[in-house]
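SEVERITY: medium
COMPONENT: batch folding queue
REPORTER: lab tech (J.R.)

DESCRIPTION
The queue accepted two submissions in a row. Attaching both inputs and their returned structure tokens so the on-call engineer can compare them side by side.

ATTACHMENT 1
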Amino acid sequence: MRNDFDFAPLYRSSIGFDRVFNLLNNAQRLQAIDTWPPYDIVKTGENEYRIQMALAGFAETDLDISQERNVLIVKGQKAEEKDGEYLHRGIAGRAFERRFELAEHVRVENASLTNGLLSIELKREIPEAMKPRRIAIGSSAETQAPLQIDAERQVA
């Protein structure tokens, strides 16, 4: 049984949220969830995040991390080793591609691989033009009169 949500009423009353609704629609359509490699997403500060992926057996040269628009892509391709015949293979070394949808203005700060744990540091940097600002309320008479700087007023 599927629970599909209809976002049509939200489209009628909101502007500029098309991307969010598309993300929600795409999330509903996911059939099988690939759980490998395992990962954590940690909020480390007000605007800082960290993605940690368990990648035992992978070297830095086996990994490729890229960011395209608002998508972070982590790919792993391990070279096939011919050390002998495996009697049991419990350490996964298969190729993978993991995608993370990033919000606007989130960028990758750093990536490191230590003891089989890949850490990707992310930071959201909101441009000055988009930060909240205080708007002064004035009457129409005040806006028509020329503004006078206090230092000039004292000199006169």
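ATTACHMENT 2
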Amino acid sequence: MKKLYAFLLLGLSFSACQQQPAPLATDQVNTLVGNAGYVAATGQQPTASTNDDARVQAHLAYAERLLRHSPTAGLSPALAQRRAHVLDLLHTYWTAGVFPRNYDHPGERRPCFIDRDGRLCAVGFLVAQTVGRPVAERINKAHQYDLIADMRTPALAKWVQTSGLTKQECALIQPTYGYQAPVRVRKTWSR
């Protein structure tokens, strides 16, 4: 098991050195580990008919496990405590199972920081819970459908520095979401 974590961390370090982020795949829930969380949870690859929330939830549970087992020797005691708190919040988030929707990118899996219904992604939730929803909304305004690796906003950079996580670890957390057409509500008239 330790070899698996070391291998995954080595892969994360390698991909952090690449200049361009990996292109988004239409079938991968995370750009760094793909569908590894779903496979770990179910023993099989997801299919086109697999429930997207189940895929996201399995991925986030997997990411939490990886991060809890990652070395933190370089962190100050205050940052280590902050990291533990952030990971506890991540656990609360994924067990609740309320995830944003990708309403705007048909045929693509895309991250979505905050969707039009106000649902936050995992990293958005962590930001909102620790430094406030207005900070998450500022990040969303500039980067709603962007990968963490592509986000260049001071608000996110400052949060990452104080979270106990690295930007690469935030990218590990960040899932992508399959397209969901918005539901149109039909008004009914009664007399």
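NOTES FROM REPORTER
The mean pLDDT is 88.
No errors were logged for either attachment.
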